[in-house]
Write a structure and sequence with these properties.
Structural class: mainly alpha
Number of domains: 1
Distance between the termini: 107 Å
C-alpha cells in the first residue's frame, strides 16, 4: 500500500515537472513571438486611437471596451483558424495576408484621399460630437474591429512562425498568451491616451502649482498627440499593408516588387536603421498606390451598381 502511495507521489512529481517545463516553454515562446511582432503591435496602437476621436468623452471608454471585446473575439477565431490551417493548408496564409494588405492599403489611401479633398483632416465640431448616435458608435466599433482583424492576423501569423515548440498544445497556449498580452497592451494604451485630457483637467484642480502646470500641459498637448497619432496610424496602415502585399505577392509567384525593393535596399550603403526606413517608405508608397487603385475600382463599381436609370418623359 505504501509503495503504491509513493509511486503515485513520484508520478505527480513527474507531471508537475512536465507542467512547469511546458509553462516555461509557453512563457519563453510568448516572449519571443511578442518581440518579433512588436512592430505590428506599435502600428495597431497607433491606428486604434483615431477611431475614438470625435466621440462624446463619456462614451470613450465604453467604445474602447467594445473594440477590445471585438479584438478578443477576433483572436479566438484567428487562433483557431490558423492552428487548423497550419496543419491542413498552410499555403492559404499568403492569400489571407494579401487580402489583409489590400484592406489596410485601401483604408490608408481612403484617409489620404479625404485629407487631400477636404484639407481639414478629421476635425469634429462640438455639435457633431454631441450628436453622435448609437448607430455611429456601432459603425466606429465595426470599422475598428475590421482593422484589428487584419492586424491581429498578422500578429498571430508572425507569432506562429517564431514558435520553436513542436508540441501542438504548446503552440496553441503560446498564441493564446500572445493574443491576450497584445490586446491588453494595445487597448490599455488606447484607454490611457483617450483619458489623458481628463487627467489633465483633474491635475489642474490640485493644489501644488507643479501639478497645475503639468495638467495644463497635458490638456494642451493631447489634441496635437491625437493628430500625430492619426497621421502615424494612416502611415502605419500604408506601410504594413504595402509590406504585406510586397512580401506575399512574391510568395504567390509575383516577385518583381519584392525584387525591386530588395535591390534598392541592398544597393544602399548605410546603417541598418536607414535601410529599414527606406524599406518602410517604399512599402508605404506601394501601399498607397495599391490602395488608390482599390479606391478607384470600388468607386467605379459603386457608380455602375447604384447608377439610376434615366427617366424619359413624353406623351402617350
Amino acid at each position: 500500500m505504501s509503495s503504491s502511495f509513493f509511486a503515485l507521489l513520484d508520478d505527480i512529481a513527474v507531471l508537475a515537472k512536465a507542467a512547469a517545463a511546458s509553462i516555461d516553454d509557453v512563457v519563453a515562446g510568448a516572449a519571443k513571438a511578442s518581440a518579433k511582432s512588436a512592430g505590428v503591435v506599435i502600428d495597431d496602437a497607433a491606428v486604434s486611437p483615431q477611431y475614438v476621436q470625435g466621440i462624446n468623452p463619456k462614451r470613450e471608454l465604453p467604445v474602447v471596451w467594445k473594440i477590445t471585446r471585438g479584438s478578443l473575439i477576433n483572436k479566438v477565431f484567428i487562433i483557431a483558424g490558423i492552428m487548423l490551417l497550419s496543419t491542413v493548408a498552410p499555403w492559404v496564409f499568403a492569400w489571407l495576408l494579401l487580402a489583409g494588405g489590400t484592406y489596410l492599403a485601401y483604408e490608408g489611401a481612403e484617409k489620404v484621399r479625404h485629407w487631400v479633398k477636404s484639407r481639414n483632416g478629421d476635425a469634429h465640431t462640438v455639435e457633431q460630437v454631441v450628436a453622435r448616435t448609437e448607430t455611429d458608435e456601432k459603425q466606429i466599433v465595426a470599422s475598428a474591429t475590421r482593422t484589428d482583424l487584419v492586424l491581429s492576423v498578422e500578429i498571430m501569423l508572425i507569432s506562429l512562425t517564431n514558435i520553436d515548440a513542436e508540441s501542438w498544445g504548446i503552440r496553441l497556449a503560446t498564441l493564446i498568451v500572445v493574443g491576450l498580452l497584445m490586446t491588453l497592451a494595445v487597448y490599455g494604451t488606447v484607454a490611457v491616451l483617450v483619458k489623458m485630457d481628463d487627467v489633465g483637467f483633474w491635475l489642474r484642480r490640485r493644489r501644488p502649482r507643479a501639478l497645475k502646470v503639468l495638467g495644463t500641459w497635458l490638456v494642451k498637448a493631447m489634441p496635437g498627440v491625437f493628430k500625430g497619432l492619426t497621421i502615424i496610424g494612416t502611415l502605419a496602415m500604408l506601410w504594413v499593408g504595402g509590406h504585406l502585399l510586397i512580401v506575399n505577392l512574391a510568395e504567390v509567384g509575383v516577385p518583381w516588387f519584392y525584387a525591386l525593393v530588395h535591390s534598392i535596399t541592398v544597393a544602399v550603403s548605410a546603417p541598418a536603421i536607414v535601410i529599414w526606413l527606406i524599406d518602410s517608405v517604399l512599402s508605404a508608397i506601394f501601399g498607397l498606390a495599391w490602395g488608390m487603385v482599390a479606391v478607384g475600382v470600388l468607386w467605379a463599381f459603386a457608380r455602375l451598381r447604384f447608377r439610376r436609370p434615366s427617366v424619359h418623359t413624353g406623351g402617350h
